[in-house]
Amino acid sequence: MANSSAESEKEYGAESITVLKGLEAVRKRPGMYIGSTSARGLHHLVYEVVDNSIDEAMAGHAKRIFVTIHEDNSITVEDDGRGIPVDVHPVEKMPGVEIALTVLHAGGKFEKDAYAVSGGLHGVGVSVVNALSDNLKVWVKREGKEHYMDFARGTTTTKLKVLRTVPAKETGTKVWFKPDATIFQETTRYDWTTLASRLRELSYLNKGIQITLRDERPDESRDGQPREELFWANGGLRDMVTFLNGNKKPLHQDVVYLDTMRDGIAIEVALQYNDSYADTTFSFVNNINTHEGGTHLTGFKSALTSVINKYIERSSNLNKKDKEIRLSGDDVREGITAVLSVKVREPQFEGQTKTKLGNSEAEGAVRSVVNELLSQYLDEHPKTANAIIDKAISAARAREAARKARDLTRKKSALDVAALPGKLADCSLSDPALCEMYLVEGDSAGGSAKQGRKRDFQAILPLRGKIINVEKARFDKVLSNEEIRTIITAIGTGIKEEFDIAKCRYHKIIIMTDADVDGAHIRTLLLTFFFRQMPELIDAGFMYIAQPPLYRVAKGKEEFYAYSEKERDAYAERLGGPEGRGNIMIQRYKGLGEMNPEQLWKTTMDPETRTMLQVTMEDAVLADQTFQTLMGDEVEPRRLFIETNARFVSNLDI
Ligand code: 0RA
Q1: Is-catalytic flag, 372?
Q2: Is the CB of residue 84 below 6 angstroms from any atom belonging to ligand 1?
Q3: What is the pLDDT of the chain when averaged over all its residues?
Q4: 500 a catalytic residue
Q5: pLDDT beyond 70 at 106
Q6: CB distance 593 to ligand 1 below 6 Å
Q7: 56 CB less than 6 Å from ligand 1?
Q8: Exposure string (b/e) for 188-219, b if CB count within 10 Å is 16 or more?
Q9: What does the DSSP 8-state code read for residue 603?
């Protein structure tokens, strides 16, 4: 039975009023605490609970974590740590476990180990999960007893009690929760792949921890057997690099690996070069993917460039010409797959998405560690060192040759906004926050879009030529592609070193392609380009995918547009009514070109009624894999992907 608020006030005094206020705030503005109430926020609840178990494991007290998705999409997270404290807190006058689950930002109320660092992007604590759950139950095994409590929407429903005695060495915490469907209105369904990717990533970032994910929801393909996967990386980031290079050809067998402490910062680096031209570097701070980089990454990059240049200087087996070469950062990162993870006590996150490390001390610490240990590694592994410098030198040569061949001034002016491409039908407003640009496949659809658009805020850029596959070409070649240059120019940000998001001319860049295989291919090429060359646009939430309808269902003057077969059938049913289907016309759109301007506006471009997918960087590791799957030479995974839709795209109604 839930305590009435009057009753709990009497029992707990003033503290509980603060508690109620805190959790009320969470329920009122959940987005402030978990980012959003979409699928992303729903999954965030699990990460928030798991982060606590990871903290306990990072402090050396837990080894195993079990995450279970139950049939009703409720979740259990269990660990074998010390157990959340159950003794009554002298100031709060509540058991520790109750504080953790009902007081916002309760973390500081506990004595933490001297070297403990906390993960979690928002780091808001489990009380937020409690507030956003219909019910939450917690079991704590500690000091030879199993304790229990439960809650409803954040308020205590069963106060702490002892269930049974257990052997003293048996300790741990188990949390079960069922997300509140009135908060998570979009969906309460957990996605295996989303959870698995993050748990896999956490296992790489915290070597030795065993994380098991189990799915108890029925699935015919498994014949009633629950799906289960264990994530356990004894090699830490080494295993992550091997995983990331899975579809690529490594240039050396070993994964270069460093793992040490410096100035109170735990620093771990793994890297391996492959024969591609892409730079696949990921950086993390306290288990959070720092998409925007920061001081730690700056330290890593500058040390990498310097170490490789110095290695060349002192190499005896290089000719004079090679010895004189100066490698740039781009040269030494061509074909690299690298992961950098640091753990700092008080991270300062900055930037658009708060995924850029600001702590200045991290730069020097990472730089000096990489300088020392990477030089030493290369000296001790000459075969690996040679493979790396060969790659970097050939990158430098290619770049130099391309630079000489290119008319630099022409390139510069071509990317200047002053020289806006003629085929761009620009909008008349100039405030980027109001403006959107459609990248439209083909001239005929481009024509319809131009006529159908609202020209004050909608710009149209028809794409007709081939878009280059950026996975398989050096940057210079990418830039020489006519369509790519047009896109860069129209967006206005510039690219690479010159990239400046403040110059972005549209805050919505919408890819609009046909709903067929060619369309999916073009969309993927474009996404690969943006992911590789302008990830900041994805981070900023500027990238979208248009959703044109697949069917028009009409009878007389009544018409509906359907975005799936299910919808089509439902509309047909509705139009048909109890009298039968009569003269219902069903038209299947094979391409955007089959719609007239008015239809295109109504179904796909009108902000009042359209549905778009927002492209997110939620899981860059997975996105990179996805791009590789798509762009690699294997046909079957590509076909499968196109059929099952883009993993890195999350649903969003605009
Ligand atoms: C603070 C202190 C102690 C344990 C924990 C927090 C803890 C929290 C969670 C949340 C999920 N699993 C957890 N495991 C441990 C223990 C302090 C001590 O025993 O001295």
Answers
A1: no
A2: yes
A3: 86
A4: no
A5: no
A6: no
A7: yes
A8: bebeeebbbbbbbbbbbbbbebbbbbebeeee
A9: I
Burial label for 445, CB within 10 Å (0-12, 13-18, 19+), is: buried
Question: Which residues, 6 or more positions from 342, have their beta carbon under 8 angstroms from its beta carbon?
Answer: 265, 266, 267, 268, 283, 284, 285, 286, 296, 357, 362, 365, 366
Report how far ligand 1's centroid is from the alpha carbon of 42 (Å). Answer: 24
pLDDT at 167 over 70: yes
Question: What pLDDT does residue 2 have?
Answer: 38
Q: What's residue 653's pLDDT?
A: 29
CB-facing half-sphere around the CA of 159: CA atoms within 13 A = 9
My answer on whether 272 and 217 are in the same domain is no
Choice among 56, 426, 514, 539 that is catalytic: 514
- Is 516 an annotated catalytic residue? yes
pLDDT tens, residue by residue, 290-340: 999 999 999 999 999 999 999 999 887 778 878 788 899 999 999 999 999
* Residue nearest ligand 1's atom 12 by CA: 53
Phi-psi region of 546 (alpha: psi -120 to 50; beta: other; left: phi over 0): beta
Any atom of ligand 1 within 6 Å of the Cβ of 109: no
Q: Using the mean position of ligand 1's atoms as its centre, give its distance from the Cα of residue 340 in Å.
A: 28
Instruction: Give residue 82 CA to ligand 1 midpoint distance, Å.
Output: 6
**Mean pLDDT of the 438-452 span:** 92
Asked if residue 404 has pLDDT above 80, the reply is no
Q: Which residue segment(s) compose the domain that 253 sits in?
A: 237-407
Cα four-point dihedral sign 95, 96, 99, 101: negative
| Residue 223 annotated to the active site | no
Token couple for 515: 């709903």
Specify the number of domains making up the chain.
Answer: 3
Query: Are 182 and 331 in a shared domain?
Result: no
Of the candidates 172, 204, 231, which is a domain's last residue? 231
Q: Is the CB of 173 under 6 A from ligand 1?
A: yes
Burial class of residue 9, CB neighbours in 10 A (0-12, 13-18, 19+): middle
Place of tokens 């460039």: 305
Task: Judge if 375 and 471 occupy the same domain.
Answer: no
Rounded Cα gap, residues 637 and 645, in angstroms: 12
Going by CA atoms, what residue is nearest to atom 6 of ligand 1? 84
Chain center to CA of 382: 36
Q: Which of 407, 441, 475 is the last residue of a domain?
A: 407
pLDDT tens, position by position, 549-583: 999 999 888 899 998 888 999 998 888 765 866 68
Active-site residue identified among 275, 516, 598, 606: 516
The residue behind tokens 């609840």 is 45
- The answer to whether 427 touches 435, Cβ cutoff 8 Å, is yes
Could you tell me the pTM of the whole model?
0.78
